[in-house]
Amino acid sequence: xxxLGSSVEYALHCLLWLVDPxxxxxxxxxxxxxxxxxxxxxxxxxxxxEKAGIVGAAPGVKGGYRLxxxxxxxxxxxxxxxxxxxxxxxxxxxxxxxxxxxxxGPPRWASSGVCGIHAVMLRAEQxxxxxxxxxxxxxxxxxxxxxxxxxxxxxxxMWFEGRVGQRLEARSGGDRCAHGxxxxxxxxxxx
Length: 191
Fold this sequence. Notes:
- This protein has one domain (about 5-145): Winged helix-like DNA-binding domain superfamily/Winged helix DNA-binding domain (Arc Repressor Mutant, subunit A), CATH 1.10.10.10.
- It is mainly α.
- It starts with 5 loop residues before the first helix and ends in a 10-residue tail after the last strand.
- About 20% of the residues are buried.
- The strands form 2 sheets. Strands 1-2 form a two-stranded antiparallel sheet. It has a two-stranded antiparallel sheet with strand order 3-4.
- Helix 2 (about 30-35) crosses helix 3.
- Strand 1 (about 55-60) and strand 2 form a beta hairpin.
- It has 8 helices and 4 strands; from the N terminus they run αααββαααααββ.
């Protein structure tokens, strides 16, 4: 089982589309559909990012998400901690104190100090967290920019704009009917 769940990967991919302000403020549904991710799954991730100040939300049909601060000031670790919570890499069960030979409880030598296994896991976690803290969204976006064609961000921006247009059209079309503005659901006639 992976230590970091797929939620972190989805969050990072979505946030990369928010690095360029020209992308507008896409909704979590638009970001999900753009990338073939479940909209309901992604809808659970964005409130966590918002609570951490990584994104901000704008309401309304044209609303959506934008980065809460500069991409260079959002580390991968910020995203990991926001989405997964700060959880340890290793949960020591203190096995060294449970030896069957220790009938009257573990002797001091067996339980004093940090367990060697736990110590190596703590060092590994510290190294991982340092690396994740060292890498920002801006760093990831710069690397992504070297792989995709220069025209691709504009294509995605047009796709996002088309989605907003569809919502606006649906909203304006849904407020009218052939007999004038709708005031609510049709009423049943009494017979």
